[in-house]
Amino acid sequence: MKKLSYIITILCSLFLLSCSTVVPAKQVTDNQKKIEKEEKKVENTIDELDKNTKQKKIQTATLAAGIQHSLSAVTNPPTEVKTAKDLNERVISIVGTPHIDELNKVKQMVDLLNSAIIEERKRGEKMLAEKDEIINKLQKETSELKEQYDTQMWDMNEKAKEVAKQADANKATLDSMSGMFGLNAVFWGLKKFFISALTGIVIFAIIFVVLRVLSMVNPAAGAAFSIFNMLGSAVLSLVKGLTPHAFELANFASKDKVDEFKSPLVKIVDVIQELKEKQKDSPDRVYPLNEILKRFDKEMDSHEKDLIDDILKELKWIK
Fold first, then answer.
1. What is the distance between the alpha carbons of residues 288 and 279, in angstroms, rounded to a whole number?
2. pTM score, two decimals?
3. Running DSSP on this structure, what letter comes out for residue 215?
4. Alpha carbon 147 to chain centroid distance?
5. 49, 65, 76, 147: which is closest to 107 by C-alpha?
6. Which helix (H) or strand (E) holds 111?
7. Domain range list for the chain
């Protein structure tokens, strides 16, 4: 029967271990999130580049419209001006016509720049300087975004290599576990469990020993060590609750049992000590055994007397 129980225990353990299949799903999900995070950064940069390109196109269309307006203002234009105007019309057809507000602003700027009045030309130059700031900002932003795009593409490539390397290592581990009809996975899991458990036990033991030593000299360490006392009492209470006869089999005595035997012992010691103190006051007086027994009988209750009788029966003094 004992051997049969051992066999059943081993089979159950193998069944539970076989149920805990090694599935790298979480790791695959984590790797996908890493790649998606890098891809999101690249997508955001591409969107910013598209916005920048759109703004540059708007500025180009605005300037082209301004050039066309300036060329159209030339009276009896020479062939060169007519050619420039024709070419600029094709530029406008490519980049499109700006919004009416931008078109009016650029026409106003051109008219001021072409004015014969100095003050108006200065206003036009100020508007052109503002336009230059916008163009410079767009060009600088383009350069920064392209550099950021290159960096992010490099980071994503390195992250992909790292994920691929980790995936290869995981695949090699899984391939090694598939040997011996999958028993390699069982042995690998047991090994990992024992190593992790041993590490935890060693750390727990070190902390326990250090606090136990310090608790004898340091009150703060003693207070910290009381946590271990609480944990120990909780474990013992759990064991006692789950296996009520375990303490008896291990020759451990519960507090209730100790108190049960301690109560009559305390009364016996108290009576003897009381008689000793009285004999000090009257050294010539002798207390016979009957008087001592009477005092015991007076001090003890019925339960304690029954306990004394049980001890006498165990010692074969009474039947």
1. 12
2. 0.45
3. T
4. 34
5. 65
6. helix 100-113
7. 39-174, 186-249, 255-314
